[in-house]
Amino acid sequence: MKTILYARVSTREQTAAHQLTQAQAAGFAIDEVVTDEGVSGVTTRLAERPQGRRLFDMLRAGDTLLVRWVDRLGRDYGDVSDTIREFMRRGVVVRTVVNGMVFDGSTKDPMQQAVRDALIAFMAALSQAQAEAMKEARRAGIAHAKAQPGASQKFRGRKPSYTRAQFELAQRMLGEGQGLTTVSEATGITRPSLWRIKADPAACAAALEAWGL
Q1: Residue ranges per domain, the chain?
Q2: What burial class does residue 15 get, using C-beta atoms within 10 Å of its C-beta: 0-12 exposed, 13-18 middle, 19+ buried?
Q3: Among candidates 133, 143, 145, which has minimal Cα distance to 170?
Q4: Are the beta carbons of 172 and 130 closer than 8 angstroms?
Q5: Which residues pair with 19 in a beta bridge?
Q6: Count H helices, E strands: the chain?
Q7: pLDDT for residue 17
Q8: Which residue among 19, 50, 164, 173 is the one 20 to 30 A from 191 at the CA level?
């Protein structure tokens, strides 16, 4: 039985090495790491990603598929839910590094099955909601910047100390309920900046847009 870590990497800050370090720090022993780089989780299903397809061939009953969070497994609510259930039908246990979620299809108890299935639905819906919130914040930031003619040239305010990729990673982690210290260590963003991102993500997105970051 093997434990395979699947890492989807869509930005420079979301490295596979970082996700492996997180998993090992949480106590997981990893046999192999499978990585998709430069792939958007919002637009591409797991089965359509080059390395994502490999997982369906590699994993066997009794194996564990480990991901940082369930959003690594699909592009939206339906995709994430279907993917987790497909692996469970194959006897694969799906686990997450964040919050230590376990999705195991071996249980026969109807109450445990009901709780597990409800949790899958909730986690999948939460992942899609976070992705939509990030896109909306970015759209609002762009709209705000465009509504101020010449603002990017005449007055752009203080230049953000973080990149777009760091900002999006921080938003995702904050949305997952992770603490400021953990997010700061993972993204390199200071706690005061994280407070601003948490309080007004649209304004932060607008600042990034104004500075072309």
Answers
A1: 3-106, 132-210
A2: middle
A3: 133
A4: yes
A5: none
A6: 9, 5
A7: 84
A8: 19
Partners of 201 in beta bridges: none
CATH superfamily of 3-106: Resolvase, N-terminal catalytic domain (3.40.50.1390)
DSSP 130-153: HHHHHHHHHHHHHHHHHTSTTHHH
On the question of pLDDT at 148 being above 80, the answer is no
Q: What is the mean pLDDT of the chain?
A: 81
Please write the tens of the pLDDT for every residue from 18-57: 888 989 999 999 999 999 876 555 567 788 888 888 899 9
Q: Residue 4 in 3-state DSSP?
A: strand
pLDDT winner (highest mean) among 21-30, 116-125, 148-157: 21-30
Q: How many angstroms separate the CA atoms of 143 and 193, rounded?
A: 22
Instruction: Count other C-beta atoms under 10 Å from residue 1's C-beta.
Output: 9
Per the document, the length of the chain is: 213
- Under 8 Å between Cβ of 68 and 97: yes
Stretch (H or E) spanning 203: helix 201-210
d(CA 79, CA 71): 10
Containing H/E element for 115?
Answer: helix 110-146
Overall pTM > 0.85: no
- Rounded Cα gap, residues 209 and 67, in angstroms: 31
